[in-house]
Each structure stands twice: as C-alpha cells, then as structure tokens.
Hints:
The complex is a heterodimer. Chain A is of the alpha/beta class. Chain A contains 16 helices and 36 strands. Chain A starts with a strand and ends with a helix. Chain B has helices spanning about 5-30, 60-65, 100-120, 145-155, 165-175, 190-200, 215-220, 240-265, 280-295; strands at about 45-50, 70-75, 80-85, 120-130, 130-140, 180-185, 205-215, 225-230, 235-240, 270-275. Strand 2 (about 30-35) of chain A pairs parallel with strand 8 of chain B, so a sheet runs across the interface.
Amino acid sequence: MQFLAPMMLAGAAAVSVPLILHFFYRARHTPLPWGPMRFLKEAIEQTSRRLKFQEIILLILRCLAIILLALAIARPGSENVSRSSRGDAVDAVFVIDNSYSMGARVGDKEKTRLDHAKEAAIAVIATLPANSSVQVFSCSDRAKLVGPTQKLNMDQARSAIGSIQITSLSSDLLPGLSEALAMAKSGTASAKEIYVFTDMQKEAFQRQEGAVRAKCEEIKAAANLVFIRCGDVSKRLLNVAVEDVTWHTESIPHTGPGVPFVVTLRNYGSDPVKSVNVFLEIDGKPVEKEPRVVDVVEADQTSPVTFTGTLEKAGVSVISVRITESEGLPGDNVFYKTILVRDKVRVLLVNGTPKPENPTGSGDHFIRTALNPAKIQQYYIETETVPANEAGPKDLDGKDIVYLLNAPIRNREVDPIAGMSMEFLGELDKFVKSGGGLVIGCGDNVNGELYDKTLGSGGSKLLPFDLATTRSATETSPFHPAADTVEEASFLGRFRLSPYAQSLQGVSLFRMFGVTEAGASGRVLVRTTSGLPYITSKVVGTGEVILITGSLDESWGNFSSDPGSFQVPLAIFTVTHLTGRKVAGGSVTAGNPLVYYPPPEAGTTFELVYPDKQLPRLKLTAVEGDGKRTVTAPETELAGIYHIVPLGKSPDRTSATFIVNPDIRESKSLATTTDDDLAGWLGFRPSIIQAGAGTDSAVTQLRTRSEWTEYVLVLLLVLLVAETTWAWVCGRSW
Amino acid sequence: MPNYLQPDILARAESLGMKARQVVEGLRVGDHKSPFKGFSVEFVQHREYVPGDDIRHIDWKGYGRSERYTIKQYEQETNFSCHILLDASNSMRYGSGATNKLEYGKLLAASLAYLVVRQRDAVSMRVFNTKVVAELPLSSQMGHINAITRILEEMQPREATTIGPLLDQVADRIGRRGIVVLISDCLEDLEPTLAGLRHLRFRGHEVILFHVLHTDEVKFPLDGNIRFVGLEGFEELMTRPHLLRPAYLRIVEKYLADIRRGCDGSGVDYMQLLTDRPLSNALAEYLVRRLQAGRR
C-alpha cells in the first residue's frame, strides 16, 4: 500500500483529541444545588459500568473515524496507485523501446511491435487529464529524449512518438528508466506516471538486473510505473541472424584471385527456420545473381554458406551480407565487414647480418621466406633488403612495413660507418607515426643501451619497452613462448589455438633481451613460460611498433623442426595487422562511437555520412590530444556503412569507412518475460497492460482501480453512522 | 393581608373548605366519639329532622310540644384541631420563584391554616428541620393567622431534615386527637418517616401528607454537564444527567410508589404536590377528593 498524499497521514495525530478529551479534559460543570442526592448517587452507581463501556466504545469509534479520515485524505492505494485518479494533471514520461527486437511482426503481419507501441502511446496520451505533460524517450541500450520541446503540447508529443525508428541496438531498460525518473522528478505535477512500451524482452531487464530492480523500486516510490507489453508473448519468434562473414585470413586480401567468403547464419530461436535467402555483396555488387537458399536452419544451430568473390580494386572494400526470412527480426538480417584489399605490400628488411655469399645464412632469410614461402615471382608482397649500414631515408619511400633484423645502430665513437644512420632512424620515426609498421628483431648486433637511447625512452620512444640486459638459457632448457600468455584480443590471438599454439610453444629461445616493464606504455603480447616478454607492441601515432626480444633468425634460438609453421603465420599475422592499421575506418557494433585519426593534411572539420544517407550529415571536429588528432562520431544507432569525410567531400574508396553491425546480443535472447517472472525479479508486481485496442481503457481503469480513497470514505461513512447510532442509543453527542 | 394568604387560593379553597367542614363532620359522625362532648356547645336554632340525622340530636321536648321532629343546631358542630408541620430544611430550598418548594409549602400551610381558622377550628403551626424551629399553639382566633404568616415569612431553610423522630415527638406532645398535616419533600430515609406517620395514626390522629416536590426532582429533565451540590450534606457529584435519567426515574418512581404504599398502609392521606402546578388547583383537587371520599 502506498499513499498519494502521505503528509496527510499526520492528520491521524488528531486522534489524540478525543483521547485527551476523554482522559484529561474536565468539562465545565454548572453547579446545581440538589436535594435528592441519594437518588442521583444510586443512579450513578447503577449506570457507571454501562456508561464506561459505552464511553469506551464511543471513544474507539471516534478515534477510528479520525484515523480513517486522515487515511482518506492521504489517498491510500495499492503500490500501483496513480496520483491522477482524481483528475489531477500528470507528468507522464514515455519510454519506448526501439531496440531491433521491436521490429518483429509476431502474430501481426501488418504492424511491428514498435507500431503497436506507438499506437498504445498515443492512446495513453488521450487518457491524460487536462494540463498534463508528456516527455518521450526512445530506449534501446541508451535513452534519447525525442520530444516534445513543449511538454504540454500533445500534438508535438504524438509527432515525437511517430518519429521514433527502430535501431540496431540491443535492449537495456536501465538508461530509459533512469532518464524517465529524472524527468518525472523534474516535473511540477504531483501525479507522475512512467509508461514503458516494450516487448518485455528478458534481456532488457536482466542485463543489469540489480540496477534495474533498484531503479524500479525508486520509480515506484516516486511515480506510477506501467509496462505496456507490445507484441504477443504467447507466440514464439522465428529468427535467423547473420552472425559473421569470414574469408581466408592467413593471407592478406589482395586483388586478383577469387576469395572464399563464409557466411555464418545462426538460428537464435527455438524453432527451425526454413527457406532463408542469403545475399553477399562486395562494394554493393552482388557476388552471385541469385541468392543462396538455405532450406532449413535448425534451432540454436549455425549454418555456414560459402560464396566466392573477387576483390577487384585495391583499397577498402565493404562486404555486405543480407538475408531474407519469412518473419523474425529485420534488424539482424544484415552484416557488414570491411576488407583492405592490397595490390602490393612493400616490406623493407634492414638486415644487420648481411651475408651475400651465403644468402640462407643471412639475417633476412627467414623473413623473406616467410613473407613469400612459395617464392612466387611478382608476388603481392614485395620485399626489399638493405644492409643496416646502407639504409637511408629514401629506402622508406613507398614502404608499408620495415623490419629491423638484428640491425645495429651506428655508434660514431666505435665505428662511424657501421649500423643504421641517425638520418634513417629519424625518418623511420616519421614513417611509423604516419601509419607505417615497424618490426624489430633482436640479436647480437643489437646494443640495448644504444637502442634505448635512440629508439627507446631516451630517444624517439618507438620501443614498446626499453631493452635491459640479455638473458641466456642452455640448449637443454631453453626459453619457450607460452601459448596461454598470448593476448587474446591481439592480432596474435590465434596463437592461443591449435595448431598455432603448438608451433609457438615449439620455439626454443637460448637468448633474449629482458625489458624494463615498469613505467612503459607498450603491451606484452606473448611471454615465455618463465614470464619474460617475448613479443611486445606499441602504437605510435597512427603506426605501430612490434618488438621481438628474441631473434627473427635462428642465431638466438630455433623455430622447431618446421620453422615455417611459426615464422610464416607470425609474419603473415604481423604484416596483415600492420597493413590493416593503415585502413582508415573500422568495424564497430551499433551504438559504439566511430573513432577516426585523420592524417595531418586532412584538415580539422569533417562530416559523418550516414548509411544510405538516411540522416543529414553530422558535422564533426577533430580534437587534439595525446599527441594525435581524433575525430569521434557518437551516433551509430543504425547498422550500415558510415563514412567520415572532410567537410563537403563525397565518400570514396580512400575516405574513412566504418561499418556498423547490429548488436547481436539482442538476437541471442529473444525470450520475453512473463508477468510473474517480472514480478519475481522486481520484487513487486508492476502494472502491465497489453498494447492493443483496450490500452486507453486499461490505463484509465488502472488509475481509478488502484486508489482506495472511495472505499475508505465509505468505511468512514459507515463508521460515522455507527458512531451516531451508538451515541444516540447511549444518549450522547459530541 | 399577608403574602401567603392569596385571594385566589383562599377564595377557591374557602368555598370548598365549607364542604370540607361538612366532610370532616361527616367523617367524624359515627367514626368515634368526641372527648369534648357538650363543651362549648351553644344552641343556635332548630331545624326539621331529615332522615340520616343522628336521632341523638332530636329535640324530644319539642317533639312533645309540637309532635314534629326537630334537630337542635349548635354554633360549633365540630371541634377538631389541626396541627400543621412544615419542613423548612435545606432540601426545601430547591426551585426558584413560585416553584420553590419551601415557598410553595409556606403558601400551602398558610392557606390551610386560614381555611381551618375560617371554619373556626383550631390550628397550630410547627416549622422544623432537624428540630422544631418555630411553633405556634392551637388557636381558632383569626388573629392567629397573622402570627402564622409572620413566622412563615421570617422562616429560612436550614440544615437537614429528620422527620421520623420529629413526628414521634409531635405525636407525644399532641394530647387531643386531631388532624396532623405534614408538608415536606420527605427526601430523607423513607422508613423513619413512615414510622413517624404510623405513630401519629396510632395516636388516633388523622394524618395528611402533602408531599411537595419540584418537577425537576420527579421528571429529571436536566441536561449538560452539571455539578450537583447536595443541599443536605451529600458530597458533590459531577455528571451528565441525561445519561442517568432512565435509572434516576426508575429510582424516583420506586421511591414514590413506596411512600404512597406506606401512606396507604398506614391510613395516611397522601397528596403529591409538584410545585409547577398552581397551588389553588392542587389544593382544590385535594379538597374535592376528600369531599368525594367523605360521601362514599
């Protein structure tokens, strides 16, 4: 039970009045000289017990009457009581779920759940008393105020409701409830009502279950919380989603030969789905004229569909997958991925141990072999080797990646011509910061102290960690990289898995540099079993440096019986990763911001171009910070292809391209909650109304039914009649 | 004329009083012998005998002369003495103006005294509370009325009442049989009062009790919060009388029934007088009632 005007309960203190009158008050008695006192005394003796009983009954009735009056004024009601039940103005806040599960058409081919929600919201507006205000929030995993600008303008409110579109976001009611409560509290009306129009997906309540429960409790104390169920809970949703699209990832995508693409479909529902048409497009062009038809996708199963497409142009290509199904959620029927298509990848190998007379013994042998294991002429990965002491700034022209292979740094005090020149290293610094990749392999020629002073914390700060002293191991007990130490989220993550993990752990290292981890900004991607950092990385500018504390040849270790099983994937993963960094743009899940690091020449003002130009461009400004300029676009509610372009420019293959995919969490939990489940989670039973023809009358009934004032007043009336009758019977009055 | 001798009362009672005298005579005839036979008998005239006359009064000598039955009439046919006892205790203070019980009693006493003296009977007056506070001896002189009214005028209510012992005392002091009229509210214990009345009756007196009560005391129409202050020594009682009314009326009704029954049982002529009723009416009613009782 709760009270709409709890302060009025203080009126119950008036119950002390009859008590005081009864026990303490001495009424003024008129003196009267009287003769037959004997009769009077006898009459009192005869009646005193009866009179006391009558008085007690009367006192109780009167106290009850006062308590009931206070109770009635305080307007008691059930926990769902609305303060508007007597026609008071209401501050109503609508939270309309626009996660993509609201796009379902379960049981109604004509209308989506969101359409039902909108109709119900407009019906609720019609029931609001005069002078009520309305604020409308759309809510998926975030809340957004959609209007109206004038709270009392119901036409604007209806228009705002009509403007709400389904997003590609998942459900989480917490933000919407929080915003709604704050908005309701800021209102001036005493009656506050929060309506949540949702399909009651379990995920919406359970993602932050504790916080949602606490917020609902808070709302219950301040406002009337009503859930409007949109959609038929009794019917199960058939749904297939596009989970992923992959291609042969052990090579760098490049123009030319056909590439196999594997589309993974997943049935997140509990019933099989038949006849799913699958389309795959590369840069908007269908790979195949006719869709692939998947006869059936079993419940909770995946179904791969393979396409073969050709990457025709170098640059960023967008792979789009689209499926059609008879029903289900349109929101998860699309999936996008970008792919950087290269025509050539140019790698400079700075060799610290050139051996022209014995090329296989040269320090660059293993890398050259790894980058072109088949030794194909005119291979798309082109390597160029230059001895360390001959490396110059011009060697960096047109290069994508530079390998320093056991390359010494020139120490003029020791040898003025040996090792890499300062000019080269200075240009190398610029190369990395502008997006180039640098891989450093160690060896006997690497002077840790000089490296630290030149490339480390004492110089250009390219090194992820400063090099410390070398660590040596015996041949019988060498260092081994540990697969379980591989950072899962890194480009080397696959080394945690078979067969790469075995190859990684087969590497024996007899010598390696230690590094100074304290205070460094790099991260360790792989450690040895003894915990020593083996492969580390550091993002510098828009480029990245990979430091390998061992050698990239077999001078400080060996790569097992099959060197290629480790060297080749390591080289390919590394090159793929480093060249991928040069792609402007990226892939995010809907709702996450797009972060773009524009090149220096790109200016400071940009525009966000929405998918299919659904919305007008959003102006963005680059922000300086942390040594680089950053452009952030927060608005990614819709899945699709976004571009960030300089102000006024049109998107093309060179512009920053982002693909935004639906938040697949929405598809993973399609179950909706029942009224009982919800009551169980929340700890109380909220008002739940089914959206539909009777929404308005249900809301009106809810307002009036939940207040008990009338019943209390009737009870009070009965009590007063009883009191009056009793007083009359007893010959008393107030 | 004194205040207590009001013409309208007296005028009405006087005419009835004559009849009353006849009634008194009628009552006495054959009832008991007068101890004062032949005393102060003065011949006035003869009148013709009519059936029903006592043959003892036939003038046999005259019959011898004229052979007609004649009756000798005397100036004083009856010779009764009336003793009026007036209660002047504090309880008689209740009521205001004409409804004051003591004033009502005084008026009644004076009227009765006048009525008796006017009939040339003797009347005595005793005013009492716990004891006799004023007393006038028997006298049939008209001037005696003046003395009576003077005493009544000067009399103020005081103290409580003790009727029973006082009646015993009066019974012992009154030698001749006569009429004893008690004017009181009789609010003390009933049994001693009835015992006193029985004592008087035992001595051969005719006893009349004029029970003077205020309407408030009988009907108890009081309301509101009232602090009752006992007029004769009871403590104060604060109450809301309307709540007690049913019980009070029950008790009073029983009390009145008891006193009436007691009087009837003792041969005491009982007359209840409510002070809101005009005395002339009440007195006339009583006298008529006596008259009718005498004819039967």
